[in-house]
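Following up on my earlier message about Phenylacetyl coenzyme A. Here are the inputs again, as you asked, copied directly from the submission form:
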Amino acid sequence: MCTQGLDQPRTLAAEDVSARAEHFEARVAAEDKIEPPDWMPDAYRALLIRQIAQHAHSEIVGMLPEGNWLSRAPSLRRKGILLAKVQDEAGHGLYLYSAAETLGVTRDELVDQLLAGTAKYSSIFNYPTLTWADVGAVGWLVDGAAIMNQVPLCRCSYGPYARAMVRICREESFHQRQGFELLTVLAQGTPAQHAMAQDALDRWWWPAVMMFGPPDSESTHNDRSLRWKVKRFTNDELRQKFVDLTVPQAQFLALTVPDPDLAYDGEHWRFGKPDWSEFKRVVKGDGPCNRERLVARRTAHEDGAWVREAAVAHAAKRVLV
Ligand code: FAQ
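Thanks, got it. Here's what our run produced:
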């Protein structure tokens, strides 16, 4: 992976690096946006490539659980909404790969890492969508958690990532609403439909709570990321905000959050401890659908080879003309 700046020769004298680093830190502290041609520390560049790439992969792999229901949506209206949502996620992946490319890594390199199984993507997408209610739960909870995490990223110190996030967040907001509306219909429907909605909440609640990453005490990147204003809140802060916002929504749906320790303390909804051993297993590749997800991505990549070849041939022809 190329982590060298475009204007960042390896041979900079130590005093130059220290002056540039000082200037960089001052700009970040002043809420200036860092742009691709600007000098930046190698560690900042590496941190951004890591996070943006993981984010891009998550959007792409994240198409699979809901894509599973495209051919079985219960009405044309529901199918149209779901199609639009899944296509939006593909677009998000593309904006994010483009944002990562401004840091000197190629999309091909990143995709190769995903297909080789060496790249991370969000743990949440390794859980199966077993019923139609899961489509609602993914929109409500997973997109809801994504918005909580991603709205602050619109203020990220790196310009291309921050700008990509503005559009992504607008679309995620539609995704969250369609999921909540879908679940509202089920939760207010027949007893069987209500039970289906409850079952979806039972299975998606804890994985959604864990999406925000390990507890702050175990986060490896919190400190540096906060200092460089990539992240604006810690994992635990965002997790608490998500729980505070989502519990009243579950109450509105007359659904029960599957956490016996959930209690309101007058300011926040205090919640139980997620099963962090499950989180670690899923992140390491041993979740319910990790293998299936990678097989699906590899197959899609192989099936799409002719499109890439045709696009390259077309571009070459245009250069010759
Ligand atoms: N899954 O020190 P931290 C979406 C890793 S998009 C897997 O806390 P950081 C839209 C982390 O990478 C969802 N791995 O790390 C949608 C690191 O490993 P590394 C994705 C995780 O980066 C909806 C290690 O643990 N959103 O949902 C997870 O400061 C519906 C230590 O962690 C984003 O990616 C996890 N959940 O904070 C699409 C948002 N959490 O790299 C389709 C951008 C942590 O050292 C359908 N990303 N790890 O090997 C972020 O905000 C951050 O990267 C965090 C993690 C908050 C995810």
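One observation from looking it over: The longest helix spans residues 159-187. Hope that helps, and feel free to reply on this thread.
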